[in-house]
Amino acid sequence: MGKVTGFLEYDRQEQKYQLAGERVRHFREFTLPLDDNDLKKQAGRCMDCGIPFCHGPTGCPVNNQIPDWNDLVWQNDWEEAARNLHSTNNFPEFTGRICPAPCEEACTLNLENQPVAIKTIEQAIADKAWEMGWIKPEIVSFSTGKRVAVIGSGPAGLAAAQQLARAGHEVHVYEREAKPGGLLRYGIPDFKMEKYHIDRRVKQMEAEGVVFHCGVNVGVDKNFASLHNEYDAVLFAGGAEDPRNPNLPGQDLAGVHFAMPYLTQSNKRLGQEDVTGEPILAAGKHVVVIGGGDTASDCVGTAFRQGALSVTQLDIRPKPPEREDKLTVWPYWPTKMRTSSSQAEGAEREFQAATLGIEGKKGKVVGVQCARVDEKRQPIAGSEFILKADLVFLAIGFAGSVKEGLLDQSGVALDRRGNVVASDQDYKTTSEKVFVAGDMRRGQSLVVWAIREGRQAARAIDEYLTGSSNLPR
Ligand code: FAD
Predict the structure, then answer these.
(1) Which InterPro entries is this protein grouped with (predicted)?
(2) pTM above 0.90, yes or no
């Protein structure tokens, strides 16, 4: 291990953020990277742990060999660090930007609340690899003669497609939207991850032989049975975008929307794509966001950048405790999640607040009726209050995958939560030669889990098609 006493000599340092007042004026990423010397010191803080929990099952879903690449960065061998990182993660520049970093939560130095800045280092390795031209298409010179269809091009579909192409299969990705990327492109705003990161990976994959068919909604534009006949295996990676519906009184008033149409419109506008339906814009409005997760905080950040007059976020959970370093722990899991910076941009936050209904005048929303809740999340009598609102976003989670079209036609079994049934060992659905990965199997989750499932499902498909697989687990 490089610097045995590094953790005693150097304090934790993460990349910094542009100030809130500056970053809300644009939609671009706003992190300010550390220089190589500081990054080296941060990597040098990694201890030679007997058991490195950071890359165990709870630390890193893709099993990144974190201590190894920290050591390589400490030794200034960035190219080998990039190679090592790519051996377990197809898209480290995605996770380096938007993963909540359970690895840092698991880091031994987190006992002192000073974990190694793993996420900052991961992003730096991936960015340097692109900058230096080390990331190239990995084109295989053999073909198995087998054809695989991947339905959906979010992180699960992309990771699976890349692995399958590298195993010599002919891979076709079907995507109902105009461009690949799934929630990375149409859900997550640019200020968390700009879209060029996806575009250059798609180019790399095309050079590796993956064929993208965008604008094709399988089950609507293309019949599932005919697609099933054309391929030797099919992977469902369609995500879990069916919104959980609170069915609030007054929810049908003008100005009340689910979060995803809002975020999708905003992303499409920025990507200069056609926006369909009534435009949803926060400029000059009092905005209330109902919900406390990633989707809600992305609505908050987007509304500020569009010029909202005020943004209030309602969370039924209690106010999180403050960390010793005074950074509010947010959200609750993983407890040191560092991805959501939108609240710091000026949002009012109401905790332990239930939404009772939406108030309107002449068919339009004017306010949100709320009440404080007790420990059992039941409204406390007499605690009711009203928040002024011209625009309300419902962001209280997702209830599995959309059933119409693909899932109905394929007849695959679903569990009680509306996810496609398959084990995390073989990723096989109840339909012959149909596999499933990512949110469609595990429910709305994280990008890092989608990448893991895509990689593992690719291996399972490779084994199914050829009897064995050299793809990593
Ligand atoms: P998705 O990314 O949902 O991709 C599924 C794709 O399949 C979509 O492109 C869809 O159009 C396509 N599709 C579906 N059905 C069909 C069909 N029949 N035919 C053709 N195409 C089809 N996770 C993090 O780790 N960090 C974050 O900061 C974070 N922020 C988030 C913010 C928001 C607003 C949301 C909603 C989620 C966020 N997540 C975050 C979660 C993360 O984005 C998802 O867990 C991840 O994208 C799931 O990947 P996936 O490939 O399974 O599905």
Answers:
(1) DPD_II, FAD/NAD-bd_sf, FAD/NAD-binding_dom, Glut_synth_ssu1, Glutamate_Synthase, Helical_ferredxn
(2) yes
